[in-house]
């Protein structure tokens, strides 16, 4: 979408997002007398989106943020105005005593909206127009109101368009209202086929350059020039017609729900939003009763290839649903819909080619021309009966309802068909059709579809269709190993069956493919297709994802990337982090991130921040969740220091041992990073916080094993002087051996009577101590708690290595997906669109 309303002759970026343009905007030098233009986008607002002063004000804000002067705004009648007009029509036919009261009430509603939104000067002008319309209504009532039904119903859209155009002109930019009856020509109210050539020519003569057009939805003229309507919800159809007439790139239907759902969310509370819906699937949804989509809405978009967006005017910041041409992931989406009060028609005349022609002529909802059966609406009974009788064929009508599963090539999915049939096994199903449309399976039932049945079928059919996007940040050794393991994990771990790799990030390049990156070719795809990016705009790019959930796996050592966590959490994006920076950040920052994550139901898992794949974080969390209380945490947390001190027995100088470890890749490129103890210090902090204690890095005393004289010199000079480490370490070892002990670099935390102590240092310990005998590079963790006092809990094993760390990340991923499978989203529902 456009970022904000800006005149055509200014780049969008010339105005800050929050600086809203007004009437005093610079005007183009283009002539102002009815210029032809092409709409960049069409924005349609439904009746509920315009129902009150508050709603209209919200719409004005949406237009300011999302429209340019090239765009077109289409409006429905405000709130329940159309219902009020239909009631007036009925009361007039019945010559009811309540007629004038209803008319007065409607006039007061319209005047009340104008008073609440406009200055006195502009209110007066609008009042005059409203009075003229009601005077015309009074004239029709004196004649025959039946002859003016379409004109009466058109008042709602006209009042709505005039009002919004006046508000925009007063507050935002030059705006004007257009009556669609001045340009939109259809064949008749039954078929609503548009005469595009004539309508396009007439529309171009109506459009004014450098002004925002607000156009009525729902109303048109037929081929004889008579006013007519497009049917209830026809304003959506009007919007897509206008897109075709103006070659618009996008159409946004601003409604009262934030997208298209897997079922009607009023009836099915667990319905999930479909972020991207293939065009043919959306068309089938509209045809089979989806409450958001008008049956004809998508037809005009085929001509120009425009994308359709469905968004909520009550929650405009939330990403809605996009309808267009998408790949495999979007094609897996499914939805359940239903219609009651239908007829099953059975006749020999409905077989074969003749049956196909009749099905097309009557827009049959479903059926099978091989068996001579069609499902139609009740209102079509008389016409189809007359048609079939004229052919001399017997005909049978049976009252029925339908429930349908809609999705890309649904009719070809054998497992879906079987699952659908199982869900309906107790319903006495008359037929299961898929012969007319490949994107749906339609079950015909002898009784109405209840809310209970719709929920049951939705649960049985849609329950495994939740889609999770996966972004991997950090493509070093561990990142490549994680990706190498991913194809097998996706295939074998049930919790990951709807996980899709959609993003890869290095420190300078990115690859985003919303239709999925093949995990088997992830690294090569990144090498060939990745493009540069700036970290400052990364979160905004990530938030524009079309998935139920998004998980970022952070395998970077980057502090800058860890500082994005709060922003990610605020958008409900989940993080699995091997990155230690966020978990060991200053206490206030850490607590803020935890709070943001909790508030937005975002998961933050970090088992691999300590102990690679060892389940130390899981163990601590399990104890706390079970009601235990942690008293002490200690152990050897560094695989590098574990290797060094398991091998250091005095037979070889410490400096030489350190150089050997460096050559084998056991240490960091600068071994002083390991010897400083900072990594162990951060790990102890992370575990203490995991155990529920408020601790800062400064609260943990840390013994740096690098002599002061060697800390600030270059790496090359340090390696040249590494023998200066020999004597100090030899002395520490000798002192320990004389006492029958050994030396180990140990982290210790304790909470004794409310007093917290934490330290990491080189200690002399007995050779019988649990920390004294490890396989080199192993970690060991000892946890003492109320439940584990006399015999503390011990966890030991590899504390480093690409395989075990990548495995730990996959463990967190599976855990996260299991948690998300039961997560429920609250649908912000204001009622279904007018």
TrEMBL record:
Role noted for this protein: Bifunctional aspartate kinase and homoserine dehydrogenase that catalyzes the first and the third steps toward the synthesis of lysine, methionine and threonine from aspartate.
Q: Indicate the family of this protein.
A: In the N-terminal section; belongs to the aspartokinase family. In the C-terminal section; belongs to the homoserine dehydrogenase family.
What does this protein need as cofactor? a metal cation
Write the record's keywords in alphabetical order, separated by commas: Amino-acid biosynthesis, ATP-binding, Kinase, Metal-binding, Methionine biosynthesis, Multifunctional enzyme, NAD, NADP, Nucleotide-binding, Oxidoreductase, Sodium, Threonine biosynthesis, Transferase
**The Aspartate/glutamate/uridylate kinase domain, residue ranges:** 42-303
Taxon lineage? Bacteria, Pseudomonadati, Pseudomonadota, Gammaproteobacteria, Alteromonadales
Q: What is this protein called?
A: Bifunctional aspartokinase/homoserine dehydrogenase
Give me the reactions it catalyses.
Answer: L-homoserine + NADP(+) = L-aspartate 4-semialdehyde + NADPH + H(+); L-aspartate + ATP = 4-phospho-L-aspartate + ADP; L-homoserine + NAD(+) = L-aspartate 4-semialdehyde + NADH + H(+)
Q: Where is this region: Disordered?
A: 1-30
């Amino acid at each position: 979408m456009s970022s904000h309303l800006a005149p055509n002759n200014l780049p969008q970026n010339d105005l800050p997002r929050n600086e809203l343009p007004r009437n005093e905007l610079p005007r183009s030098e283009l002539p102002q007398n009815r210029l032809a233009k092409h709409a960049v986008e069409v924005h349609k607002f439904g009746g509920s989106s315009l129902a009150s002063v508050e709603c209209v004000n919200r719409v004005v804000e949406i237009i300011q943020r999302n429209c340019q002067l090239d765009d077109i705004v289409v409006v429905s009648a405000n709130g329940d105005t159309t219902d009020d007009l239909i009631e007036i029509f009925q009361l007039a036919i019945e010559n009811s005593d309540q007629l004038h009261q209803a008319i007065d009430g409607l006039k007061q509603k319209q005047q009340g909206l104008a008073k609440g939104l406009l200055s006195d000067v502009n209110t007066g002008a609008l009042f005059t127009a409203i009075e003229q319309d009601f005077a015309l209504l009074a004239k029709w009532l004196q004649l025959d109101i039946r002859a003016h039904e379409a004109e009466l119903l058109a008042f709602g859209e006209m009042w709505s368009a005039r009002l919004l155009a006046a508000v925009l002109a007063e507050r935002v930019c030059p705006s004007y209202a257009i009556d669609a009856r001045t340009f939109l020509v259809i064949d008749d109210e039954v078929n609503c086929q548009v005469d595009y050539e004539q309508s396009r020519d007439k529309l171009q003569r109506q459009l004014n350059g450098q002004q925002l057009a607000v156009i009525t939805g729902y109303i048109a003229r037929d081929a004889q020039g008579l006013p007519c309507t497009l049917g209830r919800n026809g304003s959506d159809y009007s919007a897509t017609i206008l897109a075709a007439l103006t070659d618009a790139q996008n159409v946004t239907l601003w409604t009262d729900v934030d997208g298209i759902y897997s079922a009607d969310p009023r009836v099915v509370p667990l319905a999930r939003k479909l972020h991207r819906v293939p065009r043919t699937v959306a068309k089938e949804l509209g045809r089979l009763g989806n409450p958001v989509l008008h049956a004809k809405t998508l037809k005009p978009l085929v001509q120009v290839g425009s994308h359709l967006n469905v968004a909520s005017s009550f929650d405009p910041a939330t990403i809605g649903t996009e309808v267009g041409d998408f790949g495999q992931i979007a094609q897996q989406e499914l939805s359940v819909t239903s219609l009651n009060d239908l007829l099953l028609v059975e006749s020999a005349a409905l077989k074969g080619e003749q049956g196909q022609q009749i099905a097309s002529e009557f827009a049959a909802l479903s059926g099978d021309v091989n068996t001579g059966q069609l499902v139609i609406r009740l209102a079509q009974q008389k016409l189809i009966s007359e048609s079939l009788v004229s052919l001399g064929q017997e005909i049978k009508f049976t009252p029925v309802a339908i429930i349908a599963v809609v999705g890309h090539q649904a009719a070809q999915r054998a497992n879906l068909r079987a699952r659908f049939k199982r869900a309906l096994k107790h319903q006495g199903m008359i037929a299961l059709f898929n012969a007319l449309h490949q994107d749906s399976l339609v079950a015909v039932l002898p009784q109405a579809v209840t809310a209970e049945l719709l929920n049951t079928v939705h649960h049985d059919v849609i329950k495994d269709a939740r889609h999770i996007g996966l972004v991997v940040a950090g493509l070093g050794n561990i990142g490549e190993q994680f990706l190498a393991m991913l194809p097998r994990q996706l295939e074998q771990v049930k919790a990951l069956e709807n996980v899709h790799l959609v993003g890869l990030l290095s420190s300078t390049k990115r690859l985003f493919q919303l239709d999925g990156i093949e995990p088997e070719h992830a690294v090569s795809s990144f090498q060939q297709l990745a493009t540069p990016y700036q970290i400052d705009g990364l979160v905004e790019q990530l938030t524009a994802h079309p998935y139920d959930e998004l998980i970022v796996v952070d395998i970077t050592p980057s502090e800058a990337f860890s500082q994005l966590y709060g922003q990610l959490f605020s958008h409900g994006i989940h993080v699995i982090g091997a990155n230690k920076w966020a978990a060991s950040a200053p206490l206030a920052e850490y607590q803020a991130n935890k709070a943001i994550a909790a508030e937005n139901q975002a998961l933050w898992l970090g088992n691999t921040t300590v102990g690679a794949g060892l389940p130390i974080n899981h163990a601590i969390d399990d104890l706390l969740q079970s009601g235990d209380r942690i008293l002490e945490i200690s152990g050897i947390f560094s695989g590098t220091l574990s290797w060094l001190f398991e091998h250091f027995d005095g037979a070889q100088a410490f400096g030489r041992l350190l150089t050997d470890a460096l050559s084998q890749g056991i240490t960091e490129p600068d071994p002083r990073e390991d010897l400083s103890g900072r990594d162990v210090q951060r790990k102890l902090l992370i575990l203490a916080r995991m155990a529920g204690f408020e601790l800062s890095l400064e609260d943990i005393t840390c013994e740096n094993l690098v002599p002061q004289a060697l800390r600030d010199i270059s790496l090359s000079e340090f390696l040249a002087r590494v023998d200066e480490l020999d004597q100090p370490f030899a002395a520490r070892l000798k002192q320990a051996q004389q006492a029958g002990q050994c030396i180990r670099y140990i982290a210790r935390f304790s909470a004794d009577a409310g007093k917290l102590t934490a330290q990491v240092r080189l200690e002399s310990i007995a050779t019988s101590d649990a920390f004294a005998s490890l396989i080199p590079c192993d970690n060991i963790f000892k946890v003492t708690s109320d439940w584990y006092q006399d015999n503390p809990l011990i966890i030991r094993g590899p504390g480093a290595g690409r395989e075990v760390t990548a495995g730990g990340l996959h463990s967190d991923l599976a855990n996260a997906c299991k948690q998300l499978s039961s997560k429920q989203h609250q649908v912000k529902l204001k009622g279904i669109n007018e």
